[in-house]
Every structure is written in C-alpha cells, then in structure tokens.
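To assess whether the prediction recovers the assembly geometry, we first specified each molecular entity separately, as shown.
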Amino acid sequence: MLNTKKISIYTADTFGFCSALYELGGLIIIHDASGCNSTYTTHDEPRWGLIDSNIYISALTEIDSISGNDDKIINDIIETAKLVNPKFIAICGTPIPSMTGFDYLAVAKIIEDKIKIKTFGVNTTGMEDYVIGIIKAYDLIFDNLINDSEKNYIDSRDNKIENGINIIGLTPLDFYYNNEDLMIKKFFLDKKNEIISSFTVGCDIENLKKFKYAKKNIVVAESGIKLAEKISQKYDIPYDVGIPILDKFYSVKNLLNDNLNGLEKFEYGDCDSDIIIIGEKIKSLSLYSFLKEKTKFKVKVFYRYTEDELVEIVKNKKIVIADGLFEPICNFVDKFINYPHVAFSGRLYDDSIKNINDIAMEVLEYEKNNF
Amino acid sequence: MLKKIESKKILENIEVKISDVEFNKMFKSGLEYATVARGTWNISHVGMLIPESHQIFVCAANCLRGVVLTAAEIHSMDRFSTIEVKENMLYDGSMEFVIIDGVIDIVEKLDKKPKVVLVYLSCLHHFLGIDIDMIFKTLNDKYEDIDFIDCYMNPTLRKSGLTPDELMRIRLYRPLKKIDIKNNVVSIIGNDFPLNENSEIYKVLNKNNIILKDITKCKNFDEYLSIAESFAYIYLFKAVAPSANDLTNRLLGKNIFISNSFNFDEIMIEIKKLCDFLNIKNLDKEYYDERIKICREKLFELKNILGDKKICIDYTYTTRILSLAKLLLDNGFNVDRIYADAFQVEEVDDFSYIKEKFPNVKLMPTVNPIMLYSNDNEEEDEYLAIGQKAAYFSNTNHFVNIVEGGGMFGFEGIIDTVDLMRDAYLNKKNMRELVKIKGLGCEECIRC
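The predicted structure of the complete assembly is given in tokenized form:
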C-alpha cells in the first residue's frame, strides 16, 4: 500500500495518550527529540495555555539514541518531578525510541524506585492512530490509578448512586471546540442523571475513583469501549454506546463489531446511499441513526478508509458529512457539510466549529428545501 | 500540579542575573517545555518560499501532523502531500520503494506538475540508513522537467552537525543552477521576510545601481532561478552560512555575512564591510550623521513616554537581542529581563558589556519545564515585551509582534523598532490570539 495523502491525517497514538491523561496531575514525558511537544500543544491540545499540565519532551539526541544513554532521561525526569511533585509519571514513545528498542518499563521502574512516585512506561510509537493512544491511557488509569482493591468492588456494590453515570471517551480530540462535551453532559443532567465521572475531561483522579458508584456507563467515542467493557466485567456496571442528538440518545451498541483494542476499517449502512458520513465512529453511527429516523435518505458510515477509497466512495453522493479537510477529495458531491474533528484538523476550525445538533439540523433543512 | 505560590518561588530560582553567569552557560538542559507562542517559521513554511514547488513529507503520523496542519493553516494544502510511514515499513526493507512509489503516485495525481518537489525525509530514514542517492536519482531520471530535492525533518540530529534549520536553508537554494553571473546583481539569502526597502543595505546598493534579489519577493519559478545571476550573496543570519558556502561552491557568486546589529558604530562598520566586499561606494557621512541623530531623538522621545516601564525581550525577535538590549539600556530604558536559552556567538561582546554595566539584567530560559507556569505568575501588562515569547511569558498585551527580524536592518531597523515599541506601549494587542498563529507573516510571503 502506498499510503500517500493529499489531505490531513488523524493524529497519532502519542498525542491521544497525552490528551487522555492531561488533567490528571501527572508528569507526562514524550520521549522525542523536538517537534512532538509543539505539534501536540499547538494542534491537538486546545487546553494548552488554559489549563496547566506538566507535559514535556525528553529532547532526545542522536547520540543518546544510539548509545543508549538512558541515564539522561532518568535524571532529567527525576529533577523535574522533584520540582512539580506529580501524582504519577508517564513516559510515552515516538518513532525513534520505538526503533531503537527503548525499554520503557525498565526506565519507569528505575525512576519509581528512586523517587517513590508511581511511574509508567508506555510504548506508543507515534505511528498508530490516536484512538490506540487513548485506549493505552485508559488502561493505565484503570489498572494503576483508580482500581486499587477488592474492597472497592464490595464498597461500590453496596453504595450505588441512583441515576449515577460515567461518561467514557470524552477527550478534546473528539469533543471540544464545538462544546459537544458540555452538550452531552447537559443532556444527561437534564434527564436527572448524576455524572459521577467523565473519562477524562473536567475530572481529576479523585473524581475518577468514584466511577464505581455509577449504575451505568455511557461510551461516547470508540476509544472508551474497551474501558467500559473492563469496568463491566469487574464492577458489573453495564454500558451503552452512543451520542445524544437534539433531544434523544441514539444507542449504537448493536451496530458495532467486537473489536475493542484498536482500529479496523468499518462501514455500516445502506447500499446505494445518498449520504456518506466520515468521522469518529460512535458519533457517525449516532448521526446515522438520527438521519434514518428523521429523513428518507439512505445513509452510510465509513470509518478509516483510505483517501483513494474515499474518493470513489463519495462520488456523486447527495451529501458528504466529514471534517472540512476531506473536502478536496469529495468531488462531484451535491453538498459537503463540514463537521470539524479536532483529531483530524486540529484547531483549524476552532472559531467556526459546528456540533452534532447543528449538523443534524443542516441535513433536515437540506431535505426540506430539496425534496 | 504546582500551586501558584510554589511555582512563583521556583520561577524566581530559575531566573539568573547576567552578572552571575557565563556566556551561553546560563541554564542546564533537561526536559523541554513548548510555549504557546508559535510565530516562528518551521521548515515547511520555509520550503513554501520556492515558487511553483510542491512539498512531500515522508514520516510517521506524529511528525506529519505538525507540518500538514502548518500547510492547512496557511491555505497551501494544494502544494503539500504526505507519505505516512507505518511500523512495518521500518523492518521489511521496503523504505526506498515506499518513497519512490509514493512520490510518483503523488506527482502523477497532481493537476499541474510542479517545477520542484521538495521531498522531506526524517530521523527514521537516517537511522534506517536508506539509499538516498538512489531514490533521488531514480526520481530525477524519471521526470526530467521536475527537480526533486532531498530535504530533512530530522530533529534527532539537531546536535549532530548541521541543524535542520541550516540544512533547510541549503536545500532552499539547491534548485538554482549555474548561469551567467551579472555584475550588477546580488541576492540576500536565508531570510524569511523581505528585507525592508528603506534599509541601508538597499540604499547602498541602489546608490551603486546594483539590483538586490530576494527569494521572498520572487513571483514565479523563473524569477527564483534568476537568483543564480548574483555575483554575491548577502546573509544576515549565521545559520545561513552553510547555505551561502554551498551557493558559492556551486554557482561561483561570493558571499558575505552582515550582522544585524543595533549599535550605531557597528552598523556603519558592517555597511562599510559590505561596500568593500562588493567594491562599491558607501553612503555619505551626512546620511549616517542624520540617521544617528534621528535614532537618538526617537529613543529620547520613547524613553520620555515609557519612563521606567519594565521591558523584556526574547530571542525570536532578532538574532542580535543583546545588541538591542544594550542600545536600550545605554539610552536609559528599564530592560529588566531577557528570554533566551542561548545567544548567537556574535553577541559575546554585548553580553560582556551588559554584564559589566548593567549586572542586574535578568535572564530566563524558554524551554525549561517550569516556564509552563511563567504566564500564570506574572501580573498582566506589567511589561512592554519585544517578541512573542517575551509577551507570553510576561503575560503582557503590550508587545512588538515581530519574529526573526521582520525584514528590519540597520538604522532604519532601530527606527522601526522604536516606533513599534511606542505603538505597543500605547496600544494593547490581543496577545493570546496573536502569538498562537504559526509562521507569522508566512502566508503573505509565499506566492504560488
């Protein structure tokens, strides 16, 4: 496969990992030379400069990579940790340490032994999709930061909060400039739910630890499915999957496949469709369900298809709903609706970003005016 | 997370007095922080200066992300493509063909064939030891009317020989081919912004009927190619020296470095150096006397307006920030703080001067992790800042929004700086909105 692109790319696992841990008070180190820090903080982290978070790069050099001078990163992390006193330390990876076989676990253990702060090494590669990075961060959170004893399970079983829910999959890469995170929370609050925790925006570790008192989990992005499944197995908390649109929650759990660990090409919907939706999987499927209910259009969702494939898929469709940076490959389409996605276009549409309700209304309006 | 009061204390410990440190031994290296201020250009911005060129970056997703969105933000996606490297490609021995086949695929799909294709390889390719010569020979043989230039986005090698910035400045002029040299044409090279036409370099060249070419003013590829007519190349940034030498070796035009000083005597020395080098007449003494008089008046006037207002400067404003600081200090301004992790070698004398005469001037780093907390701990608008990073760190909306010299030079550069400081003092800007824009001014400089 040539893997050539003329439009943007989805952000990488390294940045998904950082994004999911951003508000938890940790010291996060991207093991990289230079560039990863400014790319992440400029394009993929809308909270940078608004909410402080100790995320840095290791400033890796060629000679340190080749000679295996791991003492440098160990000492630099310890020095900074002593100053900022983090709740935990996480070291994540990029292409060069992945190539040279950097031993994340060993370095984390050395640091933890020396300064007695929980330290984790996670082998993100910078070559995978951001969803995988978020899943790795959720694994870290659940396995090491919030799920600490059997007593917890018994305590949680006996102290459930009526109407208590957790929202899982809520990171700025999928929900931010358009206030969809607030919209989702408001929807559930209006339905008299109490939001116990949200993974992981607007929550610290102490908030997250209360997740076990919830009666139900709501997964709003694909990145949250694996965590919801783990919580379901260990704490008997059931979960649903979907997004509220206008005044209704659209459950899409039964439309998903069984893949919990990452990304596979996925398509769902009508043959010979009028509308194509490209974007985050759970959002796309929720929008699909809404449009099937409210319009006469045939609708189909495509997820992680290549540029070349999409060029053919979208040809001659009535409507394509996708991030604005897909537009150059959407030729011969009646109407292109820009539904910005931070994980694809970063901050590019930060001043004009539309939320899923606006998109839904735009399609209804189109149908009303044209059919 | 650090509480405000604790971080303020740590920040005070990071700040050093110039009297207490040695030149370029101010701060320890360690983990690095990325500031919100993003106005400086990256290698993708710089490459866009070649008219009618197309860029192809070959790298992993996390590296591509920064440059692809750079191109999107300056509305240049039609001049930009990528080949995304996946993990399997690192180990199956296919990388040369991933690049060759990928580049061909991209070129074949372009509506209009570019004159030049800049193919940016990365750290990964260096570590893999791929056959770069074979790749570019294959591409150049296949497309006789396109010049494929190898470029590099390899920050892991930033301390191994030439920096990525130095390399990029070389590659920027590699499509130039040897043509007949004209004895009335020189070029300024390596600058991101057009040199101000009222600067002394322009004036002295105009006086001698010499044409100055500048990549930032080239409207099409042919104009760009005509840079090779130059009998001399002038550069203002030390990082351009390898590029200047490369041009001299390949195209024969000689080269000269002119330092962008803020010192009256030094400016005149530099202009004289240029005149001697080009064997041309200098500007009249009366001109210099008049400019010095105007500079002094302007500085005096500004000092009266600013009084003891605290001033801070950062290294992204110009290569000679210590020269600028010295000028301001000598004229009574309250230069309180300078943000730089290191200084240009040519600043060593200014460093010594300030250290001796103004020992209380403070220095602060820009990449130290604790700088994360700098903005939060500063009283808003206490400073007048010169440069974006200084503005962000000191939390002021009164700032001069220029990066990399902004095309200023010499006495006119001083006058422009003074006017910009005056404007910054009198008029607030929306600092947070302005400093986050990547590649300040790039969109106006690139043509097609």
